[in-house]
Amino acid sequence: MNTPDTPDAATPKLREQRDYLRLLAARVSGGAANQMLMVALGWQMYDLTGSAWDLGLVGLAQFLPALLLTLPAGHLVDQRDRRLLLAASLVLQSVVAAMLALGSAGAWVGPGLILSLSVLLGMARALQMPAQQALMPSLVPPALLPRAVAAASSTMQAAIIGGPALGGALYALGPWLSRQLGHTPSPTAADAAHWGAAGVYAVSLLLLAVAIAAVLGIAPRTVATRRAAPSWHEVTAGLRFIWQRPVVLGAISLDLFAVLLGGATALLPIFAKDILHVGPEGLGLLRAAPALGALLVGLWLARHPIARRAGHWLLGAVAVFGLAMIGFALTTSFWIAFAVLAISGAADMISVVIRQSLVQLETPDDMRGRVGAVNSVFIGASNQLGEFESGATAAVLGPVGSVLLGGLGVLAVVGLWFRLFPALARRDSLHPRP
Questions:
Q1: Which residues of 291-300 are buried (b: 16+ CB within 10 A; e: fewer)?
Q2: What is the DSSP secondary-structure string of 76-138?
Q3: pTM to 2 decimal places
Q4: Rounded CA gap, 41 and 43, in Å?
Q5: Tens digits of per-residue pLDDT, 40-70?
Q6: How far is residue 281's CA from residue 158's CA, in Å, rounded to a whole number?
Q7: Is pLDDT larger for residue 16 or for residue 295?
Q8: For residues 384 and 169, which has the higher predicted lDDT (pLDDT)?
Q9: Which is nearest to 325 in space by CA: 257, 408, 413, 397?
Q10: Closest by alpha carbon to 109, among 167, 180, 58, 170?
């Protein structure tokens, strides 16, 4: 990694961009809330059903509405106030958290309700991701964007570290909460689980309220675009834009297939409970491990952005991610599993910063919502559909076989992308050529 020349006193600094800092606060608070929701949802579903298939269905339930709604949402983001749309997505997530908190406290949460509310989460993300991606470049000067992306990704990783760890700890406090609220001195496992989940969802709701307030504090930004009806041509403009740019298409699709094949998030409750033999606290730490590695690398990239050989850095980072997944599949040691997951997060952070910088720097402002929507579909497919794929293959091959096969698949994708997208492999600078 090469460090650019030291900026002079006239160069704007990230810490001076107040609205950008408000967006960071919203990302941290909302991201931590979302991660806590995911920890509780996964553990609660596995507690209720004991089924890898049902864990996969949680991811599928979030992906399908995102797949259907994200492109229209991207068109909306290019036409309306992006702050208000982002706030609306957080409000919808707050409704989900409130219903889960009440349902868990009342012991009427079941697999059907979890899947139904997962659909609402998918709807919220369909709006959140393009609005959030399109808003950030308007809050900083273009020269600061790679640093801004790295800093934003780093703060998000801090939320992904703290959120699962806090969520797992709160879930484990279920027996104590049950006793404090006047239940029997020795609550049943089911009572303890309900109250542990309720505590996680309640704290998530509080964090989402903080995120909404931070977003509404950002000054309105006008989008320099003509108002247009949501025709098929307008809605799919982002797809055509990406298809015509091989570097952007290669970067986005590489992330899609790498995380689709190599993701192990949905299976972490199984690894935690049945293979590594740790409780919800251990699950929280495992979910936080990739974020810890990503945070450390993200902080480095915020100070020392990648200036040369960006394509090679991107493909190499994805290969390391695949190797880390193979290592995770083969270990039965909790701390080795934690370490290789942290390495996977560090590699993924390099990929995220390069990919997001390339996409944002190559896209004009009036297209950022629609391009961000397509990017969101790819990300959603890799995450939520990847969780379904993991659950489905684990039902056939077992969790170890599923993750091992996925890691090998990631390595195969990297080799294939070197051949399919030579312009991406040769890309030197993140900034487009004049």
A1: bbbbbbbbbb
A2: HHTTS-HHHHHHHHHHHHHHHHHHHHHHHHTT---HHHHHHHHHHHHHHHHHHHHHHHHHGGG
A3: 0.62
A4: 6
A5: 777 777 777 777 677 777 777 777 777 777 7
A6: 17
A7: 295
A8: 169
A9: 408
A10: 58
